[in-house]
Specification:
By secondary structure, the chain is α+β, with helices and mostly antiparallel strands. 50% of the residues lie in helices and 15% in strands. The longest helix has 37 residues.
Length: 323
């Protein structure tokens, strides 16, 4: 066995996880005791069986053509397959930046700027000649300086900041201020709505990762797995890791953004590392226990597995481990 949560968990030398639990039930039905030989990596499992140090490899193994040449496998335990997972950082980093520069937001900001310029001119025209009892005027009578004063007042009014350093004193000026305040309700609502929509659109685009759009982005995989061999054969830039934990930690630290892993592991374990499943399972495979070629244990184990599958015990054990 090797530690690959939630299938097998090394709990201080005591095996846990739903594959380990299924095997424990099988062993009990067969009336056999067993000892666990722990190996460091997934790639060491079958070589350990081949060397005779172990009779059985308990892990999410798929009987590929290459493996069938040298090993036997039990009947299927569960059906699974590889799936992409992305770190949530990928969405946050891309979507917010993209949303703020989307065409819809640019159009609203352009309209808002034109509206602010119109407000700046209106407030300057009605307030530029107001007497202030000897104090300096809020809106300079000179055009450029006065328009700047009006633009500043329009901006703080529309954004509801309201510093109060400039304020209209005429009836007409206050009417324009009321108009600006009402306009701000629609403007802010429109911007929030468009940003939300753009974020959702960019989120969908950023997080739908497939073999066609993964491009040259490096993808973390567990070395020695059928998943690693498959995605590498598809031209994906693979970064191999010794274990699933190392791959997930690399994504969490920012070393990589994407992984390919078992969907059970992504949903149950990956979320703790900020990983989110994306896209469909790339292909379906049946995962089994691995045996030495010609092993006398294959038929007895298969009979027990068949009984456990038909009784629903395998499904019940799996459900206890998968949220």
């Amino acid at each position: 066995m090797t530690d690959i949560e939630p299938f097998v968990v090394d709990n201080d030398g005591r095996p846990d996880g739903f594959y380990a639990e299924i095997w424990d039930v099988v062993a009990a039905e067969l009336g056999v005791d067993y000892d666990v030989v722990w190996v460091e990596t997934f790639g060491e499992l079958l070589p350990t069986v081949a060397s005779g140090r172990a009779d059985l490899a308990v892990a999410p193994l798929s009987p590929t053509a290459e493996r069938e040449e040298n090993f036997d496998f039990t009947s299927a335990v569960i059906s699974s397959g590889p799936q992409f997972g992305y770190h949530e950082r990928l969405v946050t980093r891309r979507s917010l930046f993209s949303a703020m520069f989307s065409s819809s937001i640019r159009n609203i900001l352009l309209i808002a700027l034109l509206g602010l310029l119109v407000l700046a001119h209106l407030i300057w025209l009605v307030e530029r000649s107001r007497e202030t009892d000897g104090e300096s005027q809020d809106f300079d009578p000179r055009y450029l300086q006065g328009i700047w004063d009006g633009l500043w007042w329009s901006m703080v009014t529309v954004t509801t900041v309201g510093y109060g350093d400039k304020a209209p004193r005429s009836v007409a000026g206050r009417g324009i201020a009321l108009l600006a305040m009402l306009m701000s309700l629609f403007l802010v609502g429109a911007i929030v709505s468009q940003v939300t929509g753009a974020l959702q659109e960019n989120r969908t685009e950023a997080t739908t990762v497939t073999l066609d759009n993964v491009g040259e982005r490096p993808v973390g995989v567990v070395a020695g797995t059928s998943f690693a061999a498959f995605v590498e054969s598809q031209g994906v830039a693979v970064v191999p890791y010794r274990s699933q934990t190392e791959a997930f930690e690399a994504a969490q630290s920012g070393e990589i953004d994407l992984v390919v892993a078992n969907p059970f592991a992504l949903s149950d374990v990956g979320s703790r590392y900020g990983l989110v499943q994306t896209g469909e399972v790339l292909y379906e495979e049946f995962e089994t226990f691995g045996l030495a070629q010609g092993s006398p244990w294959r038929e007895p184990i298969n009979r027990v597995l068949a009984d456990l599958q038909s009784s629903g015990e395998v499904g019940a054990i799996t459900a206890r481990w998968i949220d």
